[in-house]
Amino acid sequence: MSSERPSQLFRNKSAKIAAIPMIVTALFVFVGGTAWTIVYSFTKSGLLPRLRWVGLDQYERLWSTNRWLVSIENLIIYGLCMLVLVFVIGFILAALIDQKIRFENTIRTVILYPYALSFVVTGLVWQWILNPEFGIESIIQAWGWDSFAFDPLYNADIAIFGVLIAGLWQGSGLVMVLMLAGLRGIDQEVWKAARVDGIPAWKTYIFIVIPMMRPVFITTLVLVVTGIVKIYDLIVAQTGGGPGISTEVPAKYVYDMMFQANNLGQGFAASTMMLLTVALVVIPWAILEFGGSKNRG
Amino acid sequence: MNNSVEIKNLDLEFGAVKVLQNLNLEIGKGEFLVLLGSSGCGKSTLLNCIAGLLDVTAGQIHIKGNNVTWAEPSERGIGMVFQSYALYPQMTVEGNLSFGLKNAKLPKDEIAARIKRAAEILQIEPLLKRKPAALSGGQRQRVAIGRALVRDVDVFLFDEPLSNLDAKLRADLRVEIKRLHQNLQNTMIYVTHDQIEAMTLADRIAIMRGGKIMQLGSPDEIYGRPINKYVAGFIGSPSMNFLEGHLTGDTFEVGDVSIPMAGYDFANGGAANGAATLGIRPEHVVTGELVGNAPFQADVTVDLIEPMGSDTVVDCQFAGARFRLRMDGQARVTVGDTIRLGLDPSRASLFDKDTELRL
Ligand SMILES: Nc1ncnc2c1ncn2[C@@H]1O[C@H](COP(=O)(O)OP(=O)(O)O)[C@@H](O)[C@H]1O
Ligand SMILES: [Mg+2]
Fold first, then answer.
1. Which of A62, A88, A241, B39 fits as disulfide partner to A248, beta carbons 3.0 to 4.6 Å?
2. Is A18 inside a domain boundary?
């Protein structure tokens, strides 16, 4: 045995070697790819990337394109509604299942099942369900309520809410399962103490249990938000962005620019804007969450 | 009506599992009752029934003369302290103490006065603005006791409140709970599996096993006159020595040893005959000069020594069985020594071999 303290660098050698491929991938693909995209967003790349600088032209064009503005607006509407509703629905489902009901496993599987489907399937399923000639509208009209109308996907003003329904149907199960795991982690004695204190169940949830579930909420939030920002396939399968451009979203704009309009520079500019938005949300949160940890506890 | 809590013919089942069966218990006003038993015997279940946290299957619970069998926990006039403290982690100590009172819409100055009093009694005034995460285990449990205290109730329920603490803190807080009881004179029902806690705190101990109360009595009674072999073995550390033998009139015979039982206080008045078990506590075996006064004496060889400072536990073979005795810590013994021991039948216990009940 050497009496010297072994170098920090060589401790856990095998673990570090095993992590190298992942680190390399992360550096080259994520960081490298991101940097490359940002650089080329300042060029006039068309079908192929080319380093012909045009300054901020691509961004100016982006922010004066109606379709991009509609995409952003849709993302905000969809995102806010999705965020609020998926948490409310997921949590309420989890709280109901947590009452030690029978057939818990069956119900949990049924509700989680949509999450196992790809967005393409979900999109198609809900396209049919919301179709006036085959779906809900026709069924209810067949029951005798002739004036019943429910065709969100055919009304440009509310089409994005038709997409929202499908998104909720798919996403609520995951939130529910995560919330249920969080609820199960709460010490039963806390519940008992609250009952002895005479706190009603809803107050116990809001003031005691939910604050205790903060880590689960953060994890879920990250999953849900990333899911919202990158929404693409659901739109393609369910509405194709229509009617008109009423359900366009940023990710679809990027894809269409890059691979259909042969305008790589414009696609890069749009994706850089998406990255910037995410960074604006994530970085302050990360600083709050991890930066301050030295001063706490 | 002098009883604070009365439990009448209580049954509790979880599905097909009968946890409590036809349980009756009366707890006097201001009494400190300890429910003692090994893990899984139904102590917490009984306490949760009293608290109203479990719905009973049959029977009634009365607190202060009111039938509260179907009342909400908060309406029963009880406060409860849990093993895991069960504090609300996102609230300060003050928030923990006041949350229930605020919810009950008590006036602000009343809440402040109650918190002040509880904090003084438990010496947690400097901690009021802290969150539970910034407290030690002992401090947390004090806050939990405070939360029961501010409810201003007559009955306190404790479910193994000291089991999560280390030995030193446990001993300190035990004394404080006892002092709290002396000052407040509330009724306290205290669940534990620790016999030291039970012996030191209780006015009366209820020994539970398999959902039934085996024996209910003062610590002295439980220790001195255990009602059956289970209780005898459960209470006392090191535990009681048992010798399997035969009782004929006044003589207990085990192997080739005959022990005269004259002076033993038979439960049913007279002596009995038949197969029996003689129980002798290690601390009731005398050695040294005192042996001369003992009605029965024998020589044994020391097999093993466990010095504990204040006293020493000695293992030996006696009448064909392992036998332990407790000697003074100053006594000089080594393995292989032959020592003379003396037994006093009046301090021993005799149990029927089949029913295991006290004779
Ligand atoms: N919710 C429950 N469902 C089914 N059985 C339970 C439940 N809670 C406790 N039990 C059973 O009841 C018995 C008594 O439990 P408990 O009162 O917690 O014991 P302890 O004396 O250790 O506090 C145990 O055998 C336990 O397995
Ligand atoms: Mg228990």
1. A241
2. no
Alpha-carbon distances, residue A293 vs A290, B92, B175 (angstroms): 5, 19, 38
Q: In CATH, what number does B3-230 get?
A: 3.40.50.300
- The residue contributing the CA closest to ligand 1 atom 3 is B14
Q: What is the pLDDT of residues A258-268, one digit of tens each?
A: 888 788 888 88
Q: Tens digits of per-residue pLDDT, A123-175?
A: 888 888 887 777 777 788 888 777 777 777 777 788 888 888 888 888 888 89
Query: What mean pLDDT value characterizes chain B?
Result: 91
* Residue ranges covered by each domain of chain B: 3-230, 231-352
State how far the Cα of B101 lies from the Cα of B103, in Å rounded to an integer. Answer: 5
3-state DSSP assignment of residue B209: strand
Query: Which ligand is nearest to the Cα of residue B43, counting in written order?
Result: 1
Domain harbouring A71, CATH code:
1.10.3720.10
How many Å apart are CA A165 and CA A172, to the nearest integer?
10
Residue A73 resides in a domain: yes
CB contact at 8 A, B281 and B243: no
Ligand nearest to the CA of residue B212, numbered in listed order: 1
Q: How far away is chain A from the Cα of B118, in angstroms, using its nearest Cα?
A: 16
Does residue B44 line the site of ligand 1, with CB under 6 A? yes
Q: Ligand 1 atom 18: the closest Cα is on which residue? A: B44
**Higher confidence at residue B281 or residue A98?**
B281
Predicted structure pTM score: 0.83
Chain B residues 94-153 within an 8 A CB cutoff of chain A: 99-100, 103-104, 133-134, 144, 147, 151
Pocket test for ligand 1, best of B45, B163, B208 (most atoms within 8 A of CB): B45
* Overall number of domains in chain A: 1
- B73 and A198 within 8 Å at the Cβ level: the answer is yes
B203 in helix, strand or coil?
A: coil
Distance B44 CA to ligand 2 centre (A): 4
pLDDT score of A205 more than 90: yes
- The ipTM assigned to this model is 0.88
In a domain, A44, yes or no: no
| Structural domain that includes position A103 | 59-296
